[in-house]
Specification:
The complex is a heterotrimer of chains A (about 300), B (about 280) and C (about 425).
Chain A (H helix, E strand, L loop, with lengths): L1 H40 L1 E2 L9 E2 L3 H8 L1 H34 L5 H8 L6 H12 L5 H9 L13 H29 L3 H9 L4 H9 L4 H16 L3 H7 L10 H11 L3 H25 L7
Antiparallel strand pairs in A: 1-2
Helix pairs in contact in A: 1-13, 3-7, 3-10, 5-11, 7-10, 7-11, 10-13, 12-13
Chain B lengths: L1 H31 L4 H5 L13 H8 L4 H32 L5 H13 L2 H15 L5 H25 L3 H9 L4 H12 L1 H16 L3 H6 L8 H6 L8 H31 L6
Chain C lengths: L1 H21 L16 E8 H6 L2 H11 L3 E8 L2 H12 L7 E5 L5 H4 L24 H7 L8 E13 H6 L15 H11 L1 E3 L2 E9 L5 H13 L15 H16 L2 E2 L8 H7 L3 E7 L2 H9 L4 E4 L4 H4 L3 E7 L7 H12 L2 H11 L2 E2 L17 H6 L9 H18 L3 H13 L4
Helix pairs in contact in C: 3-14, 17-18
């Protein structure tokens, strides 16, 4: 009895010690910037014209909902995020399952899927702008010449509808590789006993997949889900580099709106406030994701 | 029997098409780096270079032999950043997964919050902070923000990996008389090797290709990482041949790392469930 | 695995130790003399400016003339880096003595906090450099709040870059074989239709491409000035879109876009017009009047030329300057002034930038040294050109202009609605 109590106390102490270095690094480095940004979000501060921020309370936050650009950016981001998140999760899971079960002959495919991780997103976006370009793009050329479907060729990035889809495609391209790795790791960690038991119970094919494997991936859904949520809601490089929010305002996403306010209009206060709102949204969805996938209570 | 074969065939065809889509942009820029501006802009597009030239690379290197310096800076920042991240996340992840203590939920929410925050809004405060601490244009001045960028998510990855390890492992180690630390180091960590590899890969590529903080916090040549230095070759607008060369030079070290780890990464995972 | 990490850690530590010695914290560096008593002049520029304004050449020449001075060119990744310098400047130290900026209005952010010199009053720039040597519009474009915070070095105006070969093929030339300049936008549209070629549903020769991307304000304000003689409404401050000329231009633009004669490609990628033009696929490119020189390198100097936008010959166009500012906390202000006067405004930089890159000199006499005679077509435009309004919310103006116009052109919103939207937008800005 005494032994177990000491052990669990020991674990607590070690827990704190183990978390300490990580926590310290993050805390010390982030505490000043976060507080400063928080203070800015409660003030009116134009970087150019004001010598110092003027405290104004929550007026920035109130202003947001009356700002048509903000509302539009919010709608665009959410719309994009829904598709991005679902496609990212589903496609990555599908590819991970494929790789998990077909081990032979997929080396080339594996390498191909993981390749995009190596390329920095900003450079990849420039290449994709080029590929999607109306007159010079590889895509239109391919559709027209190789597939003889010139009707499908279109100005991908300058029409409101296709601009969004193009950005979606590029975002998926950049993120599927890593997401697949996360899923693969999760698949691998499913205990062999569980799978054997399933085989012995006669669960094969679809049944095995749906009733045995998928439910056992809960932990992976948490990690993979957070990554997907972040990738979807914090999307920035793709619209910034490829369409610059255009055409018109069609691809203006929240993160880009924050950037514009901070570095183009120099409204630091307002930008900070929006940043907190975006952050809050992502936090909310991540916690939701965790709750939905939580297993037993902490052991 | 033949239906199964047909299925297999179509499956592989689908895989091939998907693989192609993933790989085409990379190869496209690689090939572009060997083409002249005229060939790239010509009306009849080419994928493979018809007349390969090395001019684009010459252009890159003519801009100064400083490239070794940029590479070195990037390597230092990335390697140190990765090592710190791996160690810290392995510890913190374990703590969150298996070592409950008062307030761990709060701290985890805090770490999660850091991940969600848009970096752009923090750039100026970080610049001011580093300016006051004299960290601008130094290696550590770039290592810390980068670590801060990748550490939170790495912690989550490790936490996930550790959570999936069955309790029995630790209990048997406990019964064998191991302390918490020993359990972590000798028993649990090797099993979580997969996770460590993922964290290494994730942090390596994130730090190596990081641009926004790099350009803000390293304004001097001597401190610039390669991801920033190479984008300065843009000029008024990108010469796509040069862009191709730039991309090639940026991804070669990561690809080397990738090939080294590929064996670990893929085999470890695709091995299937082998648990002892 | 463990061993691998240890090895990695060890090698990284070794590397960092060797590099620590060389990397000195540079914020607020003292002029590091390479010899006793020598001074260091630090010049900052964006990478394209370093190339196109021949900063390296200027540095070398200056060092030759002043052996006790070392000139260091520092390339910055993009303008946000310069914005951050204000943080250094407020603390009284600076990593540069002289900064090249893109657009005089960029200096606005430093004026409010009193961080840069007024070249006229503080540095007596014009006491030994004759102001009349400058092209008057260049000086105009670089004055802010009636003070000379920026010294212009090059300028650019909106013009029509053309492909002469295509003009000749379409018969749009005069008796001497020189390309005809469209007198108004209706004629521009007609020209574009003649120059537009489609084969098998694919455009092989684009009639006209107009800059409607990030630099849209250059185009829109340019045509406003050229057609309406002034950018402003009666109050002299607000930009006025509600006039018959602009309405007509807008409807012609919409017509052109609908028929495909005017390309939309600059919406997403503001460089794509210039790239297509350089590849010989565009007949008329309405953008900064420097593109034809760039294209001359791929298409051949005889196949390109430049014309003023309709009306600019009488009323001028719109342009901006790239110039230099000097922060007040620089210890080398006099040296900086010398560098500007002797090198940046000197013959080599001014003529080379004109002949090789098509950027306009700000000093009058160098126009005579232009290699290409086509510059004469723009002489009147240049002389009468004006610059952008100096609004507090200029960035917002540009962004909103872009979004309203792109929406209008791609969706075909009625001219009345568009003009109303533009007027409302202007009203809501902080001027």
């Amino acid at each position: 009895m005494k032994k177990t109590w000491t052990r669990s106390r020991q674990k607590s102490v070690w827990g704190v010690l183990f978390v300490l270095p990580c926590f310290l690094i993050i805390f010390l480095f982030v505490i000043y910037p976060l507080f400063y940004t928080g203070y800015l979000s409660l003030s009116d501060y134009n970087f150019i014209y004001d010598r110092a921020p003027k405290f104004t309370g929550f007026s920035n936050y109130a202003k947001m909902f009356l700002d048509s650009d903000f509302v539009h950016a919010m709608k665009t981001t959410l719309f994009f995020a829904v598709f991005d998140f679902s496609l990212l999760m589903v496609i990555s899971l599908a590819i991970a399952l494929l790789l998990f079960f077909c081990k032979r002959g997929t080396w080339l495919f594996r390498t191909a899927v993981f390749m995009p991780i190596v390329v920095p997103a900003s450079l990849a976006c420039i290449v994709f702008s080029w590929i999607f370009s109306e007159n010079f793009g590889l895509l239109n050329y391919f559709l027209g010449t190789a597939l003889h479907l010139p009707a499908l060729a279109r100005p991908w990035l300058t029409q409101p509808g296709s601009a969004m889809s193009s950005i979606l495609v590029v975002n998926l391209w950049c993120n599927i590789g890593f997401e697949t790795i996360l899923f693969l790791s999760g698949l691998q960690s499913i205990s062999g006993d569980v799978l054997e038991a399933a085989d012995m119970d006669g669960a094969v094919g679809w049944k095995k997949l749906v009733y045995v494997i998928l439910p056992n991936l809960k932990e992976t859904y948490v990690v993979a889900g957070i990554w997907a949520i972040i990738a979807a809601l914090k999307v920035f490089v793709e619209p910034m580099v490829m369409t610059n929010g255009g055409p018109g305002n069609a691809t203006l996403v929240l993160y880009m709106y924050i950037y514009n306010n901070a570095f183009l209009y120099f409204n630091m206060g307002y930008a900070s406030a929006i940043a907190f709102v975006l952050s809050g949204m992502i936090l909310f969805f991540s916690l939701l994701n965790m709750k939905l996938n939580s297993e037993e209570a902490e052991r | 029997m033949s239906a199964k074969k047909a299925n297999r065939f179509f499956l592989y065809l689908l895989l091939a098409v998907i693989a192609l889509i993933f790989v085409v942009p990379i190869f496209y820029s690689l090939f572009n780096s060997l083409k002249s501006q005229q060939e790239i802009l010509s009306v009849n597009m080419t994928f493979f270079p018809h007349r390969p030239i090395l001019d684009n690379y010459a252009y890159v290197f003519a801009r100064g032999g400083k490239y070794l310096n940029y590479y070195r800076t990037s390597v230092v920042i990335t390697v140190l950043g990765v090592v710190i991240t791996v160690i810290c996340s392995a510890m913190a992840g374990y703590a969150f997964a298996k070592l409950p203590f008062k307030g761990s939920g709060v701290i985890m929410a805090f770490i999660l919050f850091v991940v969600t925050f848009p970096l752009a809004a923090l750039l100026i405060p970080i610049y001011i902070m580093e300016y006051n601490l004299g960290l601008l244009n130094t290696a550590w001045g770039l290592i810390f923000p980068n670590v801060m960028n990748v550490l939170p998510f790495s912690v989550f990855i490790m936490r996930g990996v550790f959570k999936a390890i069955p309790k029995e492992m630790e209990e048997s180690a406990e019964m064998d008389g191991c302390s918490v630390f020993q359990t972590w180091l000798n028993i649990v960590l090797p099993i979580a090797r997969n996770g460590l590899v993922i964290v290494t890969v994730f942090s390596f590529y994130s730090i190596w290709g990081e641009y926004t903080m790099g350009k803000t916090l390293a304004t001097e040549d001597s401190a610039m990482p390669i991801s920033v230095a190479l984008t300065m070759l843009k000029g008024d607008s990108w010469n796509f041949g040069v862009l191709g060369a730039v991309i090639t030079m940026t991804i070669i070290p990561p690809i080397v790392v990738f090939l080294i780890f590929q064996k670990q990464l893929v085999e470890g995972m695709v091995q299937g469930a082998v648990k002892g | 695995m463990k061993r691998f990490f240890c090895a990695l850690l060890a090698s990284a530590l070794v590397l960092s130790l060797t590099s620590c010695g060389k990397t000195e914290p540079a914020a607020g560096s003292q002029p590091a003399g390479s010899g006793s008593g020598s001074k260091v002049l630090r010049v900052g520029g964006e990478s394209w400016q370093v190339t196109k304004i021949f900063l390296e050449d200027a540095a070398k020449a200056f060092m030759k003339d002043h052996p006790d001075v070392k000139v260091e060119i520092q390339t910055y990744a993009d303008p946000t880096v310069v914005s951050n310098y204000s943080i250094n400047w407020m603390k009284g130290e600076t990593p540069v003595d002289l900064v090249m900026i893109d657009g005089a209005s960029f200096a606005e952010q430093f004026i409010g906090k009193d961080l840069i010199y007024d070249f006229d009053k503080d540095l007596n720039f014009f006491s030994n450099f004759d102001k009349s040597k400058f092209v008057p519009s260049a000086i105009e474009m670089s004055r802010l709040h009636d003070k000379q915070y920026v010294i212009p070095v090059i300028s650019e105006i909106t013009a029509i870059n053309i492909n002469t070969k295509m003009f000749k093929e379409a018969g749009l030339v005069d008796k001497e074989g020189k390309p005809l300049a469209p007198k108004d936008w209706e004629e521009f549209y007609e020209f574009a239709k003649k120059l537009h070629k489609v084969k098998d549903g694919k455009v092989v020769q684009q009639g006209a491409t107009i800059q409607w991307g990030k630099d849209i304000h250059g185009t829109v304000l340019g045509v406003l000035q050229a057609s309406h003689k002034t950018l402003y409404q009666d109050d002299g401050i607000s930009v006025g879109f509600d006039n018959p000329e602009f309405r007509e231009i807008l409807s012609i633009w919409q017509k052109g876009v609908k028929e495909g004669v005017f390309s939309q490609e600059t919406f997403a990628d503001y460089d794509s017009g210039r790239n297509s033009y350089k590849a010989g696929k565009v007949a008329m490119l309405v953008e900064s009047g420097s593109r034809w020189i760039e294209a001359g390198q791929t298409l051949g100097k005889d196949n390109v030329s430049v014309l003023p936008i309709p009306g600019a010959d009488q009323n001028g166009s719109v342009g901006y300057v790239n110039g230099v500012i000097v922060p007040k906390c620089s210890p080398n202000a006099e040296l900086a002034v010398q560098f500007i006067q002797e090198q940046l405004l000197g013959e080599h930089v001014q003529t080379s930038t004109l002949n090789q890159y098509g950027k306009l000199p700000v000093i009058n006499e160098y126009y005579a040294m232009a290699e290409a005679p086509d510059w004469k077509n723009l002489k009147n435009s240049i002389d009468k050109s004006v610059t952008y309004p100096v609004y507090k919310d200029l960035a917002k103006f540009i962004k909103d202009l872009q979004s309203i116009l792109q929406n209008s052109l791609s969706k075909g919103t009625s001219v009345d609605t568009t003009v109303q939207q533009l007027q409302d937008m202007v009203k809501s800005l902080n001027k």
